[in-house]
UniProtKB/TrEMBL annotation:
Keywords: Aspartyl protease, Hydrolase, Protease. GO terms for molecular function: aspartic-type endopeptidase activity; enzyme activator activity. GO terms for biological process: protein processing. The keyword Hydrolase applies. This is Hydrogenase maturation protease. Pfam families: HycI (PF01750). Belongs to the peptidase A31 family. It comes from the Bacteria. InterPro entries: Pept_HybD-like_dom_sf, Peptidase_A31.
Length: 272
């Protein structure tokens, strides 16, 4: 028996929702592309209902490098609840989002996207998702509602340190954001982290749990305002050297956060 409620769907004795793990069992009448996925394991990305009232389980495949590119085609697959088999071999662990943010055309502001690019060549533990959000602030705000336990924002963050210094920032609960940020409306193609977090808090409206948010920041050498006549592509030398340092720190951070999402991560800044 299959029943649906809100953003979850009951399959047998198991209620599936975002983050649930399943094995794919397409019907024999399915198309050849779906049949080729028979037996693959996947993670539920969403439970959706179409205009005709039919329930679809939207999944991303384990081992798919493009699973976190939500704007890409071919990385989200739709199955009926009868075509998925809950995987209960292990309880679901914490889920962590690593989000690179920044503008590729503003010199050291591209630090976040560059770190995400460096991380894609590394093997990430189960439950850790990584994505480059660039300057898509609204996309990130909505993604923060996706059931993650922790979100690590990777960004150029000036704090008066030596250029290239990498530091972990814990801004504290989202409820502590200033009132001005609460009233601000993020631009569709802008990335002010404070405004993005405020929007996520508004969207949650007390009905959805928000993740713990941390910032892995790097002291920039070249800071641009955004109104310069020319774009500047490429990181400065000290910030370029800090990309590998940040990638190494992320591997350590995610390991600690998977063990304890509320771990105390206060630590000194790391120079290049």
């Amino acid at each position: 028996m299959t029943t649906a409620s809100g953003r979850t769907v009951q399959v047998g004795d198991v209620r599936l929702g975002r983050g649930s793990r399943v094995r794919l069992r397409p019907r024999q009448s399915a198309d050849v592309l779906d049949l080729a996925l028979t037996g693959r394991t996947a993670e539920v990305d969403a439970v959706e209902e179409d205009l005709e009232g039919r329930i679809h389980v939207v999944v991303t495949l384990d081992g798919d490098d493009g699973r976190d590119f939500r704007t890409g085609l071919g990385h989200r697959f739709f199955f009926t609840p009868e075509e998925v088999e809950p995987v209960e071999d292990a309880p679901a662990g914490p889920r962590i989002l690593i989000a690179g943010i920044g503008n590729m055309f503003m010199a050291d502001d591209a630090f976040g996207p560059e770190v995400v690019g460096a991380m894609r060549g590394r093997t990430l533990p189960e439950g850790v998702h990584i994505a480059d959000f660039g300057i898509r602030g609204m996309d990130l705000a909505y993604r923060l509602l996706d059931g993650y336990d922790v979100a690590v924002l990777v960004d150029a963050a000036p704090r008066g340190k030596e250029p290239g210094t990498v530091h972990v920032i814990d801004p504290g609960p989202l409820g502590a954001l200033p009132d001005a940020a609460e009233r601000a409306v993020p631009q569709a193609h802008g990335m002010d982290p404070v405004q993005v977090l405020a929007l996520a808090r508004q969207l949650a409206d007390g009905t959805e749990e928000l993740p713990r948010v941390l910032v892995l920041g790097c002291e920039p050498a070249v800071r641009m305002r955004g109104d310069e006549p020319d774009v500047v592509v490429g990181l400065s030398e000290p910030v370029r050297a800090a990309v590998t340092v940040a990638a190494d720190m992320l591997e350590s951070l995610t390991g600690e956060l998977l063990r304890d999402p509320q771990a105390d991560l206060s630590r000194p800044a790391v120079g290049r």
